[in-house]
Amino acid sequence: MLSTLRKALAVDDGIEELSAPYGGGWLGIPLRFTGGRPVACLPSLDAAEQRQFATADNKLRTAYQAVRSLPVWGSPESERAS
Fold first, then answer.
1. What is the pLDDT of residues 4-52, one digit of tens each?
2. 55 φ, ψ (degrees, to nearest 5)
3. Exposure of 68 by Cβ count < 10 A (0-12 exposed, 13-18 middle, 19+ buried)?
4. From CA 31, how far away is CA 43, in angstroms rounded?
5. Do 19 and 26 form a contact (C-beta atoms < 8 A)?
């Protein structure tokens, strides 16, 4: 966290992998910070890697949707379910 903060505040330059918006979702993407400005620096992917990336994205979206449907602990919805 400190390393990322130092880059975002333009103390250091370098690459951090952070969750960033991509293709309508949020994925871990390498961001190159220069002078505090982040720029996505996605590597070139071959066809097999693109399929793996798409599969991982789909798994994350599916898991996120499942979690979103769960009641939040301590919320009125979770109290009614008890």
1. 999 999 999 999 999 877 777 777 889 999 999 999 888 899 999 999 9
2. -65, -45
3. exposed
4. 11
5. yes
Q: How far apart are CA 43 and CA 51, in angstroms?
A: 14
The type of residue at 64 is Y
44-79, pLDDT tens digit by residue?
A: 999 999 999 889 888 988 888 888 888 877 766 555
pTM equals 0.57
**Counting every residue, how long is the chain?**
82
pLDDT given at position 80: 60
Closest by Cα among 27, 3, 25 to 16: 3
Q: By the 8 A CB rule, do 5 and 12 touch? A: no
Using a 10 angstrom Cβ sphere, with 0-12 exposed, 13-18 middle and 19 or more buried, the burial of residue 58 is: exposed
